[in-house]
Every structure is written in C-alpha cells, then in structure tokens.
C-alpha cells in the first residue's frame, strides 16, 4: 500500500463539533466572517501588486490559502468558527463553480478549428494520465494524485476545487495540492517567456504553449502580455478550451470515484453511482450557465458581476481550506509532492511542444 504522505490538517468538515445551539444561519457567521476577513486581506494585497507591478504575480486566491495556512499554524480556530469554515470550504465553493460558467462562450472555441481543439483535448487527457501515473509512482495517495493531475492539466486551483468534491477528497488534500501548484504557477508566469528566445518560438506558438501549460486565466495574461498581443489572444483562447474540459473530466472522475482506494485499507467494491454522484449539481449548473451564455441568454452586463462574485466566493473558499492546514506538518512531507507536481508539469510542457510541432503551428 502506498504510504500516506498527505499533510496533517484539521478538515473543516470535521470541525463541526462543539458549536453553539443557535440557529444554523447564526452558527455560520463566525466562520464565514473569519474567511471573509482573510479574503479582504488577500484581495487588498493583490490590488497592491496590481498598482505596483501592473498585474498580480500572486493572485488573491493563492494569497488567501497561504494566509489561511499561516493563521491555522499560529492558532487553532475555536469550535464556534468551524461550521462556517466548513460551509465556506464546500457549499460556497460549489456556488462559485456554477457562476464561472457565465464567463465561457462556446462560439469562439468552436471557431478555432477541429485540429487544434482535438489537440488540446488530447493534451489534457494525456497530461492527466501521465500526471496520475507519476504521482502514484512517487507514493502519493490516489485522490491527491488526481487533484495534482487535474490542476496541472486543466486550470490549476479551479480544477482542483471542482474535482475535489466529486472524488471525495479531504480538505487537507485540496489545500496541499493547491499550495504546491500555486508555487509552480507563479514560477511558470515568470519563466515561461524564456521559451520565446531560447526555443525560437513565434508569438503564435508561444500563445499556444502558454494556453496549454499556465494554470489560471489571469496567469496566462501575465505570461503573454509582455510578449505580444497575438500571444495574449491565442493563449486566452487555448486556455478557455482547457477550462471547458473541466465539465467532462469531472463527470469522468465521478464514474471512477467509487473505485478509488480508501486512505487506509483495500479499495472499496465497485458501486454504481446515483445521478447526484454521477453528475454533481454544481457541474450541471456550470454547464447550463455556459450554454445559456453561448446562446446569448445571459446578458452581457450580467457577465462581469457574476464572474466577479464567483471570484470572491472562490477566494473565500480557499481561505477556508487554508484554515484546515498545519504547515508544520506540511513541511515534513512536501518534497515528494513538489517532485510529483514539478515532473507532471514538465510532462505537460513536453506534450504541448509536441502538439505545436505536430500541428505545424507557425
């Protein structure tokens, strides 16, 4: 059996004991308030980055989980905070995933041509398979391996957050995967432009490479804007195709989830998942909203507020996840996870370069 290398945490879902006998809504307020305070601090820090550097190198989403981890390491939340933290880490995160669908339009994606679309889909699938294999060979638990693979191959933190509820990942797995991919996400933004002079890539080729490998859409912008407008446009388009893969990948892992081994003991007997397990409600909502947006049924003035709300809720959820991680234990097991994430990302970059050459992208 693979060794359990996951960092010890205090999962928010497990922190429900000892709460007061007040109404459910009132019991949520202290925890949500704590997460909101961390969110405000993270967003203020991102705003400062934007004013100083022009764009954020470390997004509020990443800052929120890092601040949450720091708070959790220095202080164990009182039981009255725990219900609200759990609610923020799960229910608010699911609402955020639904609202993200409003930012996607299928029309621009279909217009990019079948060869590139098929290549992006193939790169995502191969990237996930290779990453899971690498992580398992390095001894990572199955669920963390899946989280790392989806984060690398699709859209970083958002993919990790969306896949986690489907496979039954614990908050400590989610936070650990995000913490390690976040570091590499920043390094990618800073280092990927070196491919232009070192590999002699055109602006178009670099845009495809950035869209296939950089984690978050804002990070794609940060990695491509210094190169050219063409790189930014191509990178954003390719990135949106990767994001659109999130729905099918989540559905696929919902089928696989019952067969995943438990953290301890042998794998459970295969079971036939019910409809709510097969297609979680928030993924149906995500796809429905994306379809409505593509059909023009979501008015343009509503898109920006919905996307902004989704972003705030996601940051708030990441603060909650960070509050479940004790970094003192994380530091003792981080080397193997870091190696797995780095190797997985290297494979994704290699697959992307092969796709660029195979399609003859000039």
UniProtKB/TrEMBL annotation:
Keyword field contains Magnesium: no
Gene Ontology CC, one term: plasma membrane
Pfam families found in the cross-reference section: Cons_hypoth698
Superkingdom, natural source: Bacteria
Main location: membrane
Transmembrane segments: 28-48, 54-71, 92-110, 116-138, 145-168, 174-196, 208-231, 237-257, 278-299, 305-325, 337-359
Keywords: Cell membrane, Membrane, Transmembrane, Transmembrane helix
Localization, UniProt: Cell membrane
Topology of the protein relative to the lipid bilayer: Multi-pass membrane protein
Keyword Membrane in record: yes
InterPro entries per UniProt: UPF0324_pro (IPR018383)
Region (Disordered): 1-22
Family per similarity comment: Belongs to the UPF0324 family.
Protein name: YeiH family putative sulfate export transporter
Organism: Methylobacterium mesophilicum SR1.6/6
